[in-house]
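Below is just one:
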Amino acid sequence: MANQKLLSALCYFSIFFSPLLFPLIVYFISEDWEVKQHAKRSLVSHLVPTVLLIASFILFSFSMFSFYGPMDGSMNHFGFWQITPFLFVAIYGLLFLVIVIWNIIQGVKVLK
């Protein structure tokens, strides 16, 4: 039973060393139902920042193409696409911090 708890906790703590790979491997290799459930939960919590990171790359590419306003090439105005990347980075950083703290709490809960 201690090995299953340790493996389940490592799935949550893997956000520091192997966020997507370790829970995926544990999910497919482990035969214990509880370990599989913890691996699945940790994998989903590790996927959220990855999906948001991909969305941020798309957002940054749109913002880079929109620096030029009218057809005359002037850069005098500061519109929505110029401020959006900064807001997204702030929101992403806050969300990532919350997810890391959540994974630590869940890992400690499993070990108790």
The two ends are 12 Å apart (CA to CA).
